[in-house]
Write a structure and sequence with these properties.
Maf protein, alpha/beta, about 190 residues, seven-stranded mixed beta sheet, 7 strands
Amino acid sequence: MIYLASHSPRRRELLEQIQVHYQPLAITVDETRYAQEIPQEYVTRLALIKARTGRLAAPTSAPVLSADTVVVCQGQIFGKPLNKADAQQMLKQLSGTSHQVMTAVAVVTTTQESVCLNISQVYFRSLSDQEIAAYIATHEPLDKAGSYAIQGVASIFIERIEGSYSGVMGLPLYETAGLLAKIGIKIL
């Protein structure tokens, strides 16, 4: 059994998919980006801080897993949208371009810390203003990094991905299984 320091239902679904037994931990951390912090450092730092915070909050000594995801388009980091207008702006910028989805995963035990980063390239087709408005009306993009969910309605916008589908969802399973194996938790 591990603790999952994440509020994401997608991360929970992905852990269940690979049959990892977990208990969720409710944590809150400051997600302010440092000046001049590049996206890879930012997302990796947040995943590690979340896992460390979870380790401090955990009622037992079981390992804590955490992750953080950002979308990077033309050098700009897209987190979760602040509101519908912010989601609309993000989707307009993603339209007809490719972008990176960076997901860092961290595991913290009482004696060790491990973190890894998965980067996937996602290619969006061009979106009309009407499609963007209709998608926002579904409310799906309002709590997702980059304002879209690859596993949801937005899948019709994606021409292709190069990388990890589960990483774009928010928890790269290949890397997660590797980190868990390092601390003695085998998936199969």
